[in-house]
């Protein structure tokens, strides 16, 4: 047997500090909230202590953002704003390894993903939006569309740096200022981004980053001087925010959960479909709102696909996120691990057939072996609820109409995948999918030029592309 | 059409006549170009270090078909290549021997004399290599000559013109006949993937060669660009894996041409390991057709053991 020797990326590159502070008005300051300890989910050790914002800190941050908006940022020509945004993009690339290692430490995702996906895509979002800053008049929203003001942004723990980039880059390009709250369990890379922003000499107050738990997020979105709220996270919290904002004139975009169908027809390129299924559900441990968590496979190839899929999943390497050969890293928190276990147990109890990869798991840390449920029916919880973990539910269909009906039979509608070699069928399916993103013969591909967002309980508003600018412009 | 071995009924049907063969080959699942290239690039980022790297280097050395296929080949050149095959690194006798020496038919005897009793195979290209543009009689005579001269492995080329014009039966029959002419010698079927161009064609040609009884499927002659590439090798590895799942038989894969350094060779081994499976990590089932690769493997091997780089002057140039 040929065993790959451990090939760990050095954790020193992360430049980890014992304490991190919040970033308000261009300075790193101590928050007056209760400090939080962020842990490495792969080892359960404490990585750093992070100061958090109290209600008054939220107010200070919003005031700083308002002042920066009124005095500097909204008046600055787009071409000048672009220079700052380009500078941030270049600095992210410069410090790419540091950000990648830190992200893997704090989040648990494998280094190959933070290195090859999260960090480069984050930089790409700044580059892309920097280009828009002086061309907003050509975006199709009138000759000189105006910014909204102060944007309050709350982001999740699954792509900490990338989500910060998705939120901050378009806001800045359109001329808004930002108060951003990173997730409680993954605040570190956003604070290194704050350091980058400081070094790029962005005018004080244009970007403020205030760590904390849900209560900080709640006071941020409630703050009367916030003009725009952007939230990515769970559907439950999204609904609370929408209720809170009802009757105010704040603009809102929500990017919430999903239960995407990945639909494989019998004429699909099967080996690549298997890759796409694996990438769809095991990428980032399945902590992806657009994960292809429901596999819909045509009955005539179901056995073959399942067999190939299991063989492929058995080659996935689960373990140390810093090892360059790790394919699936650690579940982000104990809480999430408990939720995944609870849902998979319900799958077994409801009669689905469970298969789990034979891969060894580390003794410490929060890990969950890639799992596939077959014989799943639409009525089961594992087919309806978002698991947000490395768990795939396999359903079958007989005709394209049935595939459409089953795929759309969910309160969510974020993404879908269609696998077939027949071009006309791809288009036919794409028209019928109630999903914001439809991938064909691929899955989980992100590009700043392509709008991303959902239907129904997956939220509303788009991020990325020309369409994404609308969320940050007064149109 | 006569199938060379007893096949499971589904596959026996495939080779019943020309039209069933065509139906079978066109019924194979397609290959998505973007997907297979992405997967090959992704697996290419595996980081193989320390003991696993040294193991990979030794394994790769034992899989090399040390090749010289030049118009300028002479008995002297072949003899020195044979010497290299026996003792790749003269200062380090523990270095494994290569799998085979690969030459043109008229050089087979020279190579066979040099390699007698060493366990190193003599492979010969045949069948109007590299173009394959001749009559079947000449191709068979070419094959028989190589085997009589002492070749234990024959690397044939398929008729790409026939394949691309859809005359699959002709290609199939040729492989079956050459296989017969080989006797006990192992048959490697060169698909010349650089001329087949699409991955769908590579998959069809791979299955065609497996159905006709090829012991190995080989990417290229080395005379056409592009020669071996990682994604093409992925598709061929998938074919032998699927073949094993359906028949229980193990068939081999040989990428040839363009694999020049250790880093690339290790990417191929990772693909073998994770696409086909660990049992293919064996010189009986995977080979590198290469001439310059061996010296880079030897240099990297020294680096691993000595802790520093030496240089091209410390390995023998043959």
UniProtKB/TrEMBL annotation, chain A:
<feature type="active site">
    <location>
        <position position="255"/>
    </location>
</feature>
<dbReference type="Pfam" id="PF00171">
    <property type="entry name" value="Aldedh"/>
</dbReference>
<dbReference type="InterPro" id="IPR016163">
    <property type="entry name" value="Ald_DH_C"/>
</dbReference>
<dbReference type="InterPro" id="IPR016161">
    <property type="entry name" value="Ald_DH/histidinol_DH"/>
</dbReference>
<keyword id="KW-0560">Oxidoreductase</keyword>
<comment type="similarity">
    <text>Belongs to the aldehyde dehydrogenase family.</text>
</comment>
<dbReference type="InterPro" id="IPR029510">
    <property type="entry name" value="Ald_DH_CS_GLU"/>
</dbReference>
<dbReference type="InterPro" id="IPR016162">
    <property type="entry name" value="Ald_DH_N"/>
</dbReference>
<dbReference type="InterPro" id="IPR015590">
    <property type="entry name" value="Aldehyde_DH_dom"/>
</dbReference>
<feature type="domain" description="Aldehyde dehydrogenase">
    <location>
        <begin position="28"/>
        <end position="474"/>
    </location>
</feature>
<protein>
    <submittedName>
        <fullName>Aldehyde dehydrogenase family protein</fullName>
    </submittedName>
</protein>
<dbReference type="GO" id="GO:0016620">
    <property type="term" value="F:oxidoreductase activity, acting on the aldehyde or oxo group of donors, NAD or NADP as acceptor"/>
</dbReference>
UniProtKB/TrEMBL annotation, chain B:
<comment type="similarity">
    <text>Belongs to the DeoC/FbaB aldolase family. DeoC type 2 subfamily.</text>
</comment>
<comment type="pathway">
    <text>Carbohydrate degradation; 2-deoxy-D-ribose 1-phosphate degradation; D-glyceraldehyde 3-phosphate and acetaldehyde from 2-deoxy-alpha-D-ribose 1-phosphate: step 2/2.</text>
</comment>
<dbReference type="GO" id="GO:0004139">
    <property type="term" value="F:deoxyribose-phosphate aldolase activity"/>
</dbReference>
<dbReference type="Pfam" id="PF01791">
    <property type="entry name" value="DeoC"/>
</dbReference>
<keyword id="KW-0704">Schiff base</keyword>
<dbReference type="InterPro" id="IPR002915">
    <property type="entry name" value="DeoC/FbaB/LacD_aldolase"/>
</dbReference>
<protein>
    <recommendedName>
        <fullName>Deoxyribose-phosphate aldolase</fullName>
        <ecNumber>4.1.2.4</ecNumber>
    </recommendedName>
</protein>
<dbReference type="InterPro" id="IPR011343">
    <property type="entry name" value="DeoC"/>
</dbReference>
<dbReference type="InterPro" id="IPR013785">
    <property type="entry name" value="Aldolase_TIM"/>
</dbReference>
<dbReference type="GO" id="GO:0009264">
    <property type="term" value="P:deoxyribonucleotide catabolic process"/>
</dbReference>
<dbReference type="GO" id="GO:0005737">
    <property type="term" value="C:cytoplasm"/>
</dbReference>
<dbReference type="GO" id="GO:0016052">
    <property type="term" value="P:carbohydrate catabolic process"/>
</dbReference>
<keyword id="KW-0456">Lyase</keyword>
């Amino acid at each position: 047997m040929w065993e790959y020797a451990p090939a760990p990326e050095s954790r020193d590159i992360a430049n980890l500090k014992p304490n991190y502070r919040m970033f308000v008005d261009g300075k790193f300051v101590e928050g007056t909230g209760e400090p939080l300890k962020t842990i490495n989910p792969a080892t359960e050790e404490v990585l750093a202590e992070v100061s958090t914002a109290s209600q008054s800190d939220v107010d200070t941050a919003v005031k700083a953002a308002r002042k920066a908006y009124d005095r500097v940022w909204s008046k600055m020509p787009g071409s000048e704003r672009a220079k700052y945004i380009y500078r941030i993009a270049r600095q992210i690339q410069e410090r790419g390894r540091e950000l990648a290692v830190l992200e893997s430490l704090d989040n648990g995702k494998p280094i190959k993903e933070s290195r090859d996906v999260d960090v480069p895509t984050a930089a790409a979002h700044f580059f892309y939006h920097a280009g828009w800053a002086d061309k907003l008049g050509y975006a199709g929203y009138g000759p000189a569309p105006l910014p909204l003001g102060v944007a309050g942004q709350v982001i999740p723990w699954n792509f900490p740096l990338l989500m910060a980039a998705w939120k901050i880059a378009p806001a800045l390009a359109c001329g808004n200022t930002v108060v951003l709250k990173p997730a409680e369990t993954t605040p570190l890379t956003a604070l290194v981004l704050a350091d980058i922003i400081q070094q790029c000499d962005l005018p004080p107050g244009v970007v403020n980053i205030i760590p904390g738990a849900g209560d900080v997020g709640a006071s941020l979105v409630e703050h009367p001087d916030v003009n725009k709220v952007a939230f990515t996270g769970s559907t439950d919290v999204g609904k609370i925010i929408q209720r809170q904002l009802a009757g105010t004139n704040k603009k809102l975009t929500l990017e919430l959960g999903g239960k995407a169908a990945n639909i494989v027809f019998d004429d699909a390129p099967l080996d690549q479909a298997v890759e796409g299924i694996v990438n769809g559900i095991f990428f980032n441990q399945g902590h992806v709102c657009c994960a292809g968590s429901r596999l819909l496979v045509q009955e005539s190839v179901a056995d073959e696909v399942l067999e190939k899929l299991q063989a492929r999943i058995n080659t996935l390497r689960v373990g140390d996120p810093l090892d360059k050969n790790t394919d699936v890293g650690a579940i982000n928190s104990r809480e999430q691990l408990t939720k995944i276990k609870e849902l998979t147990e319900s799958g077994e109890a409801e009669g689905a057939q469970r298969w789990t990869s034979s891969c060894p798991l580390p003794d410490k840390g929060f890990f969950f072996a890639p799992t596939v449920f077959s014989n799943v029916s639409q009525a089961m919880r594992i087919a309806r609820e978002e698991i947000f973990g490395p768990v795939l539910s396999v359903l079958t269909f007989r005709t394209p109409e049935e595939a459409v009906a089953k795929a759309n039979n969910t309160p969510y509608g974020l993404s879908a995948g269609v696998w077939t070699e027949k071009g006309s069928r791809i288009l036919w399916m794409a028209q019928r999918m109630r999903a914001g993103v439809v991938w064909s013969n691929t899955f989980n591909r992100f590009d700043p030029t392509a709008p991303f967002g959902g239907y129904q309980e997956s939220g509303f508003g788009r991020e990325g592309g020309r369409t994404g600018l609308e969320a940050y412009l007064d149109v | 059409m006569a199938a060379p071995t007893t096949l499971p009924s589904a596959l026996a049907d495939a080779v019943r006549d020309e039209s069933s063969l065509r139906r079978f080959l066109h019924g194979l699942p397609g290959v998505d170009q973007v997907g297979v290239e992405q997967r090959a690039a992704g697996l290419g980022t595996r980081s193989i270090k320390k003991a696993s790297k040294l193991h990979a280097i030794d394994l790769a050395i034992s899989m090399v078909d040390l090749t010289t296929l030049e118009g300028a080949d002479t008995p002297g050149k072949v003899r020195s290549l044979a010497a290299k095959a026996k003792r790749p690194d003269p200062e380090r006798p523990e270095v494994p021997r290569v799998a085979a020496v690969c030459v043109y038919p008229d050089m087979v005897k020279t190579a066979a004399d040099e390699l007698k009793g060493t366990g190193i195979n003599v492979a010969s290209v045949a069948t109007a290599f590299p173009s394959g543009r001749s009559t079947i009689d000449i191709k068979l005579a070419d094959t028989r000559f190589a085997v009589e001269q002492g070749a234990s492995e024959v690397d044939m080329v398929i008729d790409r013109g026939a394949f691309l014009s859809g005359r699959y039966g002709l290609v199939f029959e040729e492989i079956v006949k050459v296989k017969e002419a080989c006797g006990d010698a192992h048959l490697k079927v060169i698909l010349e993937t650089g001329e087949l161009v699409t991955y769908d064609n590579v998959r069809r040609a791979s299955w065609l060669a497996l159905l006709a009884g090829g012991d190995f499927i080989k990417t290229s002659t080395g005379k056409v660009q592009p020669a071996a590439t990682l994604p093409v090798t992925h598709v061929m590895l998938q074919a032998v894996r699927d073949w094993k799942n359906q028949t229980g038989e193990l068939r081999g894969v040989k990428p040839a041409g363009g694999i020049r350094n250790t880093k690339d060779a290790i990417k191929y081994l990772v693909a073998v390991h994770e696409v086909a499976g660990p049992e293919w990590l064996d010189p009986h089932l995977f080979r590198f057709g290469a001439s310059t690769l061996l010296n880079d493997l030897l240099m990297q091997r020294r680096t691993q053991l000595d802790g520093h780089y030496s240089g091209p002057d410390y390995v023998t140039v043959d």
